[in-house]
TrEMBL record:
The chain crosses the membrane at residues 282-304. Residues 63-236 form the CHASE domain. The keyword Nucleotide-binding applies. It comes from the Bacteria. Signal peptide: none annotated. Its EC number is 2.7.13.3. InterPro entries: CHASE_dom, CHASE_sf, HATPase_C_sf, Sig_transdc_His_kinase_HWE. Keywords: ATP-binding, Kinase, Membrane, Nucleotide-binding, Phosphoprotein, Transferase, Transmembrane, Transmembrane helix. The lineage of its organism: Bacteria, Pseudomonadati, Pseudomonadota, Alphaproteobacteria, Sphingomonadales. Pfam families: CHASE, HWE_HK. It catalyses: ATP + protein L-histidine = ADP + protein N-phospho-L-histidine. This is histidine kinase.
């Protein structure tokens, strides 16, 4: 009940917070949309201003038979470019050069600027070249572009073809300007075709154009409409997909796309993306609602808990006493079962030992060692609360007297495998008999002897344990049956419910045991034991 009341109040609080956050998100989206519209308009105004200058230049240059450098320089200076033209690298003139006019063009450029030639040289795949002839203002940066055949580059050529077809200023997609040299800052160009009359028609004379650094162009537009706390990204949507031209956001801007606007820059559509800086938290009103809701829910939950705590404690006390009675009964039955199994093993060992003993002392010594082996394995089981016991721990306990002997080598190797109590007792008995035989007659009886005990899982429910002796005295292949053989092949095999391979090879004894991997049965007292703090103090004397 306390948790139900807390969940109800907290659910109402979360619903209120959702309504607040949704309203906040709608307001922010409206603000974002308004800002995106304003920035898109500023970008288009910048592009339109540049296009207007290029239209005026095209009208003037179309009336001139040739375009001398001085006249072009005077024309650009008389334009008196104002702040609306910021973001551009200047205004340039690129004349059409036919294949037979290349040498003439090179000579003209050489006269104006040494070592400037048309490049790259035409390979005959294009009808003409459109090299940069003039570019004002005449700066060291702009001189890098002189002579460059813009018609040889695909993106520029497509824009020039479109401008010639429509007779309108046309912008390219994303390019790297020649002025950048070895840099990779993205930019674009706006071309306006210049025609001259010829035979009742018109012939393409060249292009007046403006190159733009995309980042500078965006910054100049944002001087008209500040981006504020928003991230601004301008993309070129070309055949190669969306490519970033410029942006004003930092690394902490939200990566999700915000408002997307289509911006037409000189007859070329681009994408403007405006996104808000991620706040990474709730609004102030939502936080206040959350804190208030948690306080109210916690107070109500505490009140109900105090009213019901006494009843819960009384119910827990009754259940605990009932459980203890059930546990005592289960414990008695399980202990009785395990004592019977152990006594049965002891009686079998006594019977087999008595048959093989010639006198009382031999009987007592043999019985002592085997009972001690049972005791060692019992100690391991007691340490694990009669739960599962590792194979390695059982073998370690039986081979401990020989493991640190410098005259012998004991190699134990295998994965972590847990055995049930009865199976661990059987493995302990078998290991004890094999170790005793090896110490009397086998590999552990002479210096340099070696015993390998390796085990591995052959399936999810079966582990294979192999005992192998090498380096000891030669073993008689024909020999009478002893107690160890009887114990391993009868008692151990019966308990493990799997046959045992026991071979007396001339090089040494080899024994293979197949042991089931069974989940040990737990005492109920271990499985359902309550925490000490939850146990009531029983009344009594």
């Amino acid at each position: 009940m306390p948790l139900g009341i807390f969940a109800l109040i907290f659910g109402i609080t979360l619903l209120s917070m959702y309504a607040i956050e949704r309203g906040q998100a709608q307001r922010e989206e409206a603000q974002l949309n308004a800002r995106a519209t304003a920035i898109a308009g500023a970008l288009e105004r910048r592009a339109n201003a540049s296009s207007a200058y290029l239209r005026a230049g095209a009208a003037l240059l179309s009336t001139m038979q040739t375009v001398p450098a001085d006249d072009f320089r005077r024309f650009v200076s008389e334009l008196r470019l104002d702040a609306d033209y910021r973001g551009a690298e200047g205004i340039g003139w690129a004349k059409v050069v036919l294949p037979g006019e290349i040498d003439e063009f090179d000579a003209m450029m050489e006269a104006q600027r040494p070592n400037v030639h048309l490049n790259p040289r035409p390979d005959g795949s294009q009808p003409f070249a459109v090299p940069v002839t003039y570019l004002q203002p005449d700066t060291e940066r702009n001189r890098r572009a002189l002579g460059f055949d813009m018609y040889s580059e695909t993106t520029r050529r497509e824009a020039m073809i479109e401008a010639e077809r429509t007779s309108r200023p046309t912008a390219t997609g994303r390019v790297v300007l020649q002025q950048e040299g070895s840099g990779e800052a993205p930019g674009f160009l706006i071309y306006m075709p210049v025609f001259e009359p010829a035979g009742g028609g018109r012939v393409l004379k060249g292009f007046i154009y403006s190159p733009f650094n995309a980042q500078d162009f965006l910054q100049s537009a944002l001087e008209l409409e500040d981006a504020g706390a928003y991230g601004v990204r301008l993309y070129d949507e070309g055949e190669n997909g969306r490519q970033l031209l410029a942006g004003t956001f930092d690394g902490d801007m939200n990566d999700r796309e915000g408002i997307i606007k289509t911006v037409t820059i000189a007859n070329n559509p681009s994408k403007l993306v405006i996104s808000k800086k991620s706040s990474g938290g709730l609004s102030g009103l939502s936080m206040a609602t959350l804190i208030f809701g948690l306080l109210v829910a916690s107070l109500l939950m505490l009140l109900v808990q105090m009213l019901t705590q006494q009843a819960q404690e009384d119910e827990a006390s009754l259940a605990w006493f009932e459980e203890q009675a059930s546990i005592r009964n289960s414990l008695t039955r399980e202990l009785n079962h395990r004592v019977k199994n152990t006594l049965a093993n002891v009686l079998s060992i006594i019977a087999l030992t008595r048959r093989r003993a010639d006198n009382v002392e031999e009987f007592a010594n043999g019985l002592d060692g085997r009972v001690r082996a049972l005791s060692a394995t019992h100690d391991l089981l007691t340490q694990s609360d009669w739960g599962s016991t590792p194979v390695r721990a059982v073998i370690d306990a039986e081979l401990l007297p020989y493991a640190d002997d410098s005259e012998h080598h004991v190699d134990m190797r295998g994965p972590d495998v847990e055995l049930a109590p009865n199976d661990a007792l059987s493995l302990g008995l078998a290991t004890h008999e094999l170790a005793t035989n090896a110490a009397k007659y086998g590999a552990l009886s002479t210096p340099g002897g070696e015993v390998k005990v390796h085990w591995k899982l052959v399936s999810e429910a079966l582990v294979r344990v192999e005992w192998l002796e090498r380096g000891g005295p030669p073993v008689k292949t024909k020999r009478t049956r002893g107690f160890g053989m009887d114990l391993i092949e009868r008692i151990v095999a019966h308990e493990l419910k799997n046959p045992v391979e026991l071979d007396f090879e001339e090089e040494g004894v080899r024994c293979v045991l197949l042991i089931p991997v069974r989940r040990a049965t737990e005492f109920l007292i271990r499985a359902n034991r309550p925490e000490p703090s939850a146990r009531p103090a029983p009344s009594g004397k």
